């Protein structure tokens, strides 16, 4: 009982009506202090996360939002493996409750927290559980056409948890269908079609293509026959972010060699002549699509200014579509390099680039930390930080030995220095003797 009362006091720190900077999550995160009268006690990170989970039970929405913000920052700044091991189920259920009952802001934060939870756990039973329990609620929440930030966060969450927890192609394709229905809803008697905003279209295409990178040609063609034409139509939209997302998705489809599946396959027929005619018609259709897309990409790679967009946006579009054009015409995929601390993460395919860009956007300020320490991301990108390689060698000796070895005044270091000095002296002696021998031989040649 006393422990619960103490936790309630801790939650009170987050439960405030003030809107100034003192009550923001960054204040909670940076201070990590429990104030009790005049006494201040430094809290460890687990205690702060425990308090935040307790705060998710509170009735006041603003309290839950602040707690979620702090949880997100904690998961971004460190990989909370111990906390996840103990509290992952509790955190998941409370985040799902926030998606059920929260404001648009709370739903966005809870969605992001669930994605970070999955990234921290990595593949396995926990990730599968996160996916199975989250999908029904996310599906329901996506059907409400409300704030863009909320829909975008739900889409990102769905993409991340499926990327990690989706073991079967059917699970991934199910999530892709849910995303697709945001821009192509199945209309019923009680459903009114609403035109999605450019930001939502971009979010759908980005999340959808992120999952497509994992499919390896195992998609059901019947589900996606309209998609190529749709992506092609997006290249003519006014919004540049929509055009770039669609262009990169088309490049990915060409890269994995699925244009035929996405544009529809010829149906079988008992009449061989009819079958050949269908195949011929399908071939012409696909070549026509290729030509149309190539012309669109070529025009966007050379587009002049206009439409009032910033020069930076225009340059970004030109660069993106020049890379897409280079790939479609010559098969050259873009090669990129991203600095991760003192290391470089390189990509050489559209698949890798789309995965990298999506995870960079999702993780934001936590991207470098996760790329340095997250084993799952190391496996995804085939990336091993040099620091990790060194740690692999250092783990063979104890921490005390490491300190002794690294200390400039340590016995080990002094011994190593003495050994190096001896080697230098021996080298000098050998060199000196060799020089003297050469001199003697030279003198012998001079003698009559």
UniProtKB/TrEMBL annotation:
What organism is the protein native to?
Answer: Nyssa sinensis
Domain Interferon-related developmental regulator N-terminal: residue ranges:
23-329
Q: Where is this region: Disordered?
A: 1-28
This chain belongs to the protein called Interferon-related developmental regulator N-terminal domain-containing protein
Domain (Interferon-related developmental regulator C-terminal): residue spans on this chain: 374-428
Family named by the database record: Belongs to the IFRD family.
Q: Which PANTHER family match?
A: INTERFERON-RELATED DEVELOPMENTAL REGULATOR (PTHR12354), INTERFERON-RELATED DEVELOPMENTAL REGULATOR 1 (PTHR12354:SF1)
**What Pfam families would the database entry show?**
IFRD, IFRD_C
